[in-house]
């Protein structure tokens, strides 16, 4: 008889380790303090994941499986993965464990220790919910020094026959980004996001989280996340019918008071298993062929799911554990306190941190070009920035936040994932949002007290990191501009930057 452990992000009926269950097998799910505090997760995220787990366990029980669900407050709960495995092996007299490959490296280390520590056989099955296996990614990566998502994405489109027409990309091009990424315009009628019905399980879990973790970052209320597969499917339906058509065009736009824009909000559900990537992609593809959404929107969305998401996971498993220690630019500055309370006069950062606290969500450009960009050009320590991103978003697991933060946002991997740092002055934020209109700083001013800090920090960042970045061809134009600056100009940039960075608490 077998112990089948289901991790908190493996809530899928199709999970490999939930197939061919025999009479007497025990399916184990645990709410663990260790999970809640590995990093001090956002309170809403804990309510979301444990509510979804409780629903999922109930559904498995209804199917007739022998499910053991350990609640956080169970007096017998030993609160760590290893000790709970040991306790249940003994209690049910089992000598074999089956798991689906965990999503995070530290979990795999635990799984690998069980044969020695507990004298049991452990079978770790491939997680076939991803479209690209770790082995296939390894083969694709080969000995390439730089891994570029665009080429990987094309392979995925071909392999899975997504948006293909007679062996060629639909519409003749692989990528329609040139039609996407328009600035916001006034008068957009953005649909309201999904709001789940009040749920008794969620109400109980809220109390548990309030009791034990109310010192963690984030608001529990309002709570509107889906916590069952049926509800997650309703989120997907709503996205396809109400938002997808505008997804591409406004993918990068940011509007004050509109955190959800035309994004799909499915990462919470994809990452914990309530939705599968292929079903989301198929729904979007159907919308295109049924003329419900244009190609630029559908291709853009599909690229995120089968391109970026799979690519990011591939990099994580290819490069761990070294990847978690990388700091190519030797950035060491502490995370400022406004990352936790939003108390900054920089309106863009104030808006994003405040929305993150309320929703456990920010969309990609808010994460990359507001928070990530600031962290990059202010030289914040990658370890602290990674921890923040892992804590604050309800879709965050190390496998997905780490490559996005270390690779995409901070260039701390020296270019494994991207060809140049996503650094920018305030101009980009001004173009893509309406944040600057209500800011105490002036985005058009480059020097002095009223200047937008992104403006001088951007140049100071390039100056500070010339040794590491000066030979990057994609930054050649910017370093050319620095060469033309007068010494007085450079001094003024460095003085403003120094003063600002010193003022950070
Ligand atoms: P949409 O914009 O609607 O995109 C659709 C789907 O594509 C997403 O649900 C997601 O599954 C996938 N996707 C898009 N971009 C990425 C990407 N770069 N990496 C992985 N999947 C992607 N995503 C997470 O799921 N968890 C994280 O912890 C996370 N941390 C991030 C940190 C930084 C610094 C950055 C720049 C990005 C991060 N992302 C993360 C990627 C992306 O921002 C989120 O997936 C997206 O904002 C989720 O919102 P959505 O579902 O509305 O996405
Ligand atoms: Fe952000 Fe600068 Fe715009 Fe203020 S002026 S919102 S700090 S980009």
Summarize model confidence as the mean pLDDT.
97
Q: Let me know the largest β-sheet.
A: 5 strands, parallel
Strand order of the largest sheet: 3-2-1-4-5
**Gross geometry:** globular
Instruction: List low-confidence stretches.
Output: none
Please give a handful of descriptors for the protein shown.
505 residues, mainly alpha, five-stranded parallel sheet, two-stranded antiparallel sheet, 7 strands, globular, binds flavin-adenine dinucleotide, binds iron/sulfur cluster
Task: Give your account of this protein's structure.
This protein is mostly helical. Helices cover 49% and strands 6% of the residues. It is built from 21 helices and seven strands. The chain has helices at residues 33-37, 43-62, 81-91, 105-118, 134-141, 149-159, 200-213, 229-247, 267-272, 277-289, 295-319, 338-341, 347-359, 364-377, 382-392, 398-409, 426-432, 453-464, 466-469, 476-484, 487-503; strands spanning 2-5, 26-30, 66-70, 96-100, 121-125, 164-165, 168-169. A five-stranded parallel sheet has the order 3-2-1-4-5, sandwiched between helices. The chain has a two-stranded antiparallel sheet with strand order 6-7. A hairpin with a 2-residue loop joins strand 6 and strand 7. It is globular. The relative contact order is 0.10. The mean pLDDT is 97. Iron/sulfur cluster binds at residues 346-348, 426, 429-430, 435-436, 439, 441, 443, 452-454.
SSE layout and pairings?
Layout: E1 2-5, E2 26-30, H1 33-37, H2 43-62, E3 66-70, H3 81-91, E4 96-100, H4 105-118, E5 121-125, H5 134-141, H6 149-159, E6 164-165, E7 168-169, H7 200-213, H8 229-247, H9 267-272, H10 277-289, H11 295-319, H12 338-341, H13 347-359, H14 364-377, H15 382-392, H16 398-409, H17 426-432, H18 453-464, H19 466-469, H20 476-484, H21 487-503
Parallel strand pairs: 1-2, 1-4, 2-3, 4-5
Antiparallel strand pairs: 6-7
Helix pairs in contact: 2-7, 6-11, 8-10, 8-11, 10-11, 11-16, 13-14, 15-16, 18-21
The structure holds flavin-adenine dinucleotide and iron/sulfur cluster.
């Amino acid at each position: 008889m077998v112990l089948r452990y289901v991790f908190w992000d493996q809530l899928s009926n199709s999970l490999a380790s939930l197939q061919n269950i025999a009479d007497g097998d025990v399916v184990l799910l645990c709410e663990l303090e260790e999970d809640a505090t590995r990093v001090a997760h956002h309170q809403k995220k804990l309510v979301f994941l444990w509510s979804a787990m409780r629903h999922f366990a109930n559904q498995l029980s209804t199917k007739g499986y022998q499910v053991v669900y350990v609640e956080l407050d169970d007096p017998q709960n030993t609160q760590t993965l290893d000790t709970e495995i040991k306790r249940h092996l003994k209690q049910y007299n089992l000598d074999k464990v089956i798991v689906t490959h965990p999503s995070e490296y530290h979990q795999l280390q635990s799984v690998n220790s069980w044969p020695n520590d507990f004298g049991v056989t452990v079978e770790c099955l491939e997680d076939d919910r991803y479209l690209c296996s770790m082995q296939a990614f390894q083969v694709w990566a080969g000995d390439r020094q730089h891994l570029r998502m665009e080429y990987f994405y094309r392979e995925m489109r071909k392999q899975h026959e997504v948006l293909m027409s007679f062996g060629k990309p639909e519409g003749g091009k692989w990528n329609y980004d040139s039609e996407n990424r328009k600035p916001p315009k006034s008068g957009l009628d953005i649909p309201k996001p999904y709001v789940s019905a009040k749920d008794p399980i969620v109400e109980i879990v809220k109390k548990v989280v309030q009791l034990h973790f109310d010192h963690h970052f984030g608001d529990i209320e309002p709570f509107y996340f889906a916590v069952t597969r049926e509800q997650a499917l309703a989120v997907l339906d709503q996205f396809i019918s109400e938002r997808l058509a505008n997804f591409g065009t406004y993918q990068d736009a940011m509007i004050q008071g509109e955190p959800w824009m035309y994004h799909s909000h499915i990462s919470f559900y994809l990452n914990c298993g309530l939705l599968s990537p292929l079903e989301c992609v198929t729904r979007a593809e159907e919308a295109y062929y049924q003329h419900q959404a244009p190609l630029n929107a559908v291709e853009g969305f599909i690229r995120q799911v089968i391109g970026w998401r799979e690519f990011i996971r591939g990099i994580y498993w290819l490069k761990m554990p070294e990847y978690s220690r990388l700091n190519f630019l030797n950035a060491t500055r502490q995370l400022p306190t406004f990352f936790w309370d939003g108390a900054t006069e920089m309106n863009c950062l104030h808006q994003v941190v405040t929305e993150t606290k309320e929703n456990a969500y920010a969309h990609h450009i808010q994460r990359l070009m507001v928070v990530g960009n600031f962290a990059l050009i202010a030289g914040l320590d990658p370890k602290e920035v990674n921890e923040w991103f892992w804590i604050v978003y309800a879709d965050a697991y190390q496998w997905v936040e780490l490559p996005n933060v270390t690779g995409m946002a901070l260039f701390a991997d020296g270019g494994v994932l991207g060809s140049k740092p996503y650094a920018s002055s305030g101009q980009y934020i001004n173009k893509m949002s309406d944040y600057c209109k209500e800011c105490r700083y002036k985005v058009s001013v480059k020097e002095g007290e009223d200047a937008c800090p992104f403006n001088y920090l951007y140049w100071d960042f390039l100056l500070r990191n010339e040794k590491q970045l000066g030979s990057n061809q994609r930054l050649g134009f910017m370093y050319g501009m620095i060469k033309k600056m007068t010494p007085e100009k450079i001094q003024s940039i460095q003085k403003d930057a120094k003063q600002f960075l010193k003022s950070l608490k």
